[in-house]
Amino acid sequence: MSVRFCEPEVMVASRNLTIQLLVHGVTETKLYWSGLGYPVGFNGDTYSWIAYASRQGYPTLSIDRVGNGNSTHPDPVLITQMNLEEAILHQLVLKLKSGQAVPGRSFTRVVFVGHSYGSILGNDMATNHPGDIAAYVLTGYGVSVVPVAAALPQTLPLPASLYSPRFAGFPVGYLVTSSQIGRRNYLWGADGSYDPAIFLLDYNHEDVTGLGELLSITAGLKQAPSYTGPVAVITGERDEVFCAGGFCGTGPNSPQAQSCSLFPKSSNCTYYIPLGTGHMIDLHYTAQESFKNAHDFLAQHGF
Questions:
Q1: Which pLDDT does position 229 carry in this prediction?
Q2: Which of 235, 255, 233 is nearest to 244 (CA)?
């Protein structure tokens, strides 16, 4: 597994032993957390979660999930599935706490920050290993995968090896979104809510998803009855992945609010809905607003 560990540029003693574990969604890599570039992202640090966390004193570990980026690419149907990926993350958390993941560093608390499929993996961890994670920040997340399945076909999923020479030799079960218009409508918000240049950067450098991930996604979205820590949900008002028709609403009946029902014993589950924003929370003009909301939430809960 390919990972990137970043020490914070601002040292805050109370956060030195708390690490944020950053887990991306499908067709993305760990570059999602740094504005689609490294060491400098699009428009500097404007869209970099890592940079924002760094200035708040948090160490971060961003990963390429198995089957993505620079990590290994096993069988995309039989191996890259929700249950295996959750088990890998569980072992990674244990190693972060025991000092086996980052040379010379061990951490007493792990904050899980997920996006999309990564957030559903977090949900799965809260269910299967409720003691692993001290707090969850779940972005691009909702209570049901029905909208996911309903709207996905517009992206025209295609075997990656047939789509681009970048993926030559990949098994046919690794897929990309081949339609530029479909990807824009599915993952991005209202016109004017994002820079068209960052959308094109994302589309032209998209990664893959294994068919097994899509088929097993429902295994992760379920109630976590034993998890007692705090949970923050941040999903855009125009998120078509988790909101039917791309209109989530902003009140207690929104998918964001309803997702707190999956964490019945959470000490505090809250939701935030950046207006006009689509699924790619970190890449819209509201990114800094979302970053601030998440880190204010962490600070309010002693992290």
A1: 98
A2: 255
Exposure string of 116-138, with b = 16+ CB inside 10 Å and e = fewer, is: bbbbbbbbbbbbbbbebbbbbbb
Q: Residue 234 and residue 91: Cα distance in Å, rounded?
A: 26
Which pLDDT score, from 0 to 100, does residue 245 have?
A: 79
pLDDT for 236-287, tens place per residue?
999 999 988 778 888 888 888 999 999 999 999 999 999 999 999 999 999 9
Quote the CA–CA distance of 242 and 257 in Å, as a whole number: 12
* Residue stretches of the chain with pLDDT short of 50: none
> For residue 40, what are the contacts with CB-CB under 8 A and spacing of at least 6?
none
33 contact partners, CB below 8 Å, separation of at least 6: 22, 24, 48, 49, 50, 60, 62, 282
Q: State whether residue 232 is helix, strand or coil.
A: strand
Sequence-ordered list of residues with C-beta below 8 angstroms from that of 15, at least 6 positions apart, any chain: 8, 56, 57, 58, 59, 303
- Return the pLDDT at 246: 77
Strand ranges, E, within the chain: 3-6, 18-23, 60-63, 109-115, 135-139, 157-159, 174-177, 209-210, 231-234, 269-272
pLDDT, tens digit, 9 for 90 and up, residues 20-46: 999 999 999 999 999 999 999 999 999
Residues 200/36, Cβ–Cβ less than 8 Å: no
Q: How far apart are the C-alpha atoms of 243 and 146, rounded to whole Å?
A: 9
